[in-house]
Amino acid sequence: MPGFPPSQHYRESGTGGTGRTEWSLEEADNKGFWSRYAKLYDFEVDRFSHRAYERMYQLMSESLGSDMDVLEVATGTGLIALNIAGSVRSVAATDFSPGMIAKASRKPAPANVAFSIEDATSLSFADASFDAVIISNALHIMQNPRLALENIRRVLKPNGLLIAPTFSHGHLRQSTWNLNTRLLRHIGFETYSKWTPEEYVAFISDNGFRVSRWLMLNAAFPLVYLEARVS
102, 105, 121: which is closest to 113 by C-alpha? Predict the structure, then answer.
């Protein structure tokens, strides 16, 4: 997710039909930030966004079905995967942060949930593997969200369901938020895409999906809950 000159890059292999992925040292530092943050993640979600997450679990469970195989990208500590597992056939819950996956894997989980490390921009799964993909509060902190959506489209079945809630940070473009932005960046947190809700909906629509519904939820930041189908 969340520079350095090209000579400072290293490479990781990808096997999902998108070739190789180049990781910059900035991205490696970002991965380290999220691994360190894993120990606080559940506490922060519960403190600042508890009601929004409870509402998301409800909305997702209503849209998913017991015959569906689901991929979650950027699962974090597995909060969503564990809460929707009873509504679906299987959940492949993935994250690029080893620390997040380590914490998620230590939680009690039903047999239909499997945690693994995956890069959203180079998914290793076969084409048309999943009935639904969930990516929650992640696209805005990815350097290349278009490539993530390209990978998601590839692994979704025809007319597959995308569930992509994300925080709307359009207000961070305003001067009054400049200090907050600099402080967040200083500790390793970078918001690469500061969409308004309408801009985010348009972004999803422009990248191969038909948005079927979206609504706003109150959380630590304005949260756009969005569902779409592969175009």
Answer: 105
